[in-house]
Amino acid sequence: MASINASRSSARQLVWLVTGCSSGLGQQIALAILAHDDCVIATARQLTDLEYLNTIEGGRERAYCTSLDVTNPCDRIHEQLKKAIAYFGRVDVLVNNAGFVVSGVWEEVSDAEVRQQFETNFFGTMKVTRCVLPYMRNARSGVILFMGSIAGWHGVGAGGPYSASKFAIEGAAESLSKEVSHLGIRTHVLVLGQFRTNILEESRKCGTVDLIGIQEYDAIKAEMVVRHKKTHGKQPGDPKAAAERVLDIARLENLSEKERIGLGLRVPLGSDAIDVIQLKCSKTLDSLEKWVDFAHSTDFPISEHLPSYAM
Ligand SMILES: NC(=O)c1ccc[n+]([C@@H]2O[C@H](COP(=O)([O-])OP(=O)(O)OC[C@H]3O[C@@H](n4cnc5c(N)ncnc54)[C@H](OP(=O)(O)O)[C@@H]3O)[C@@H](O)[C@H]2O)c1
User: Fold this and answer.
1) Ligand 1 centre from 91 Cα, in Å?
2) Of all atoms in ligand 1, which is nearest to the CA of residue 150?
């Protein structure tokens, strides 16, 4: 394990590791980190996409740039991150930001497309997380942030691969938080609404959504394609403002008393995130009320009192 390299980071500064800093939210988070005098290990698939960090104040001293494709094998990611973390001597905050969108209806998307989605959004994210955990566990401190989505609360028609990958992140992060909170490691899923990045740009998206497939799915695919076209560039969320709030969550700054006390696993970002989560919760509670007797009908007449999962 690397020892603290005091010459490159002071105890007062947080050392962040952010994946996918070439654009969008990752880029804004890297810029905000430097603006707040912290240090960043910024990763991108193409190292040249990180050149912007050299041109800003503090970039040369407080940014360590490295190329990282999160779909690389675990051993390779581990070696790359070991070198990067040794540069500052520690890692305090991990932002699992890298991700992209695969669209299409389940009957039409290929197995390869679904796997590609999970390789980045889920397996890649968890590989990076597992590489960073030993450093945080040994330090008995750290913050791990996951980029969740309203699509991980509301299964999007013709957007199943992306939704499924974000639902999976919710489950993994929830388990992780229970495993590591006693080690001084905080885990949060940032449940993002729609933010104005290039995520919906045609060249960035993958999947099968052309209207030459199974005719019965034309309407739902068309609805999704039109929604993406109408939304791209007009999303209500400001990535720069989101980046500031991401720093607030990690640094526990600029939070009201209510927010500080109520800080749990999930942190919504964007007014649309609140709307989607509220609707999902109220619909789920309404439905549960109607199914209580039905659910109870499958229990043995007498059953022991067992440890509960509802914790
Ligand atoms: N914008 C939104 O409305 C929104 C909403 C909910 C959640 N999110 C989540 O927020 C995160 C950032 O998205 P964004 O909106 O900022 O989109 P973005 O501008 O397209 O940025 C995505 C980043 O992920 C990187 N990436 C993609 N595949 C990668 C891989 N295999 N290995 C390493 N990096 C990879 C991209 O790098 P390249 O440049 O090399 O492709 C890019 O840096 C994603 O996890 C996304 O799912 C965004």
Assistant:
1) 21
2) 6
Backbone phi, psi, residue 210, to 5°: -70, 155
pLDDT-derived band at 237, boundaries 50, 70, 90? very high
48 Cα to the center of ligand 1, angstroms: 17
**Residue 15 bridge partners (DSSP):** 39
Q: Out of 3.30.540.10, 3.40.50.720, 3.20.20.370, 3.40.1440.10, select the CATH number for domain 15-269.
A: 3.40.50.720
Mean of pLDDT values over 98-125: 97
Domain ranges of the chain: 15-269
Ligand 1: lining residues by beta carbon, under 6 Å: 19-20, 22-26, 44-46, 49, 68-71, 97-100, 120, 124, 147, 149, 192, 194-195, 197-199, 204, 235
Which tokens go with 70? 């999160």
Computed on alpha carbons and rounded to an integer, the radius of gyration of the chain in Å comes to: 21
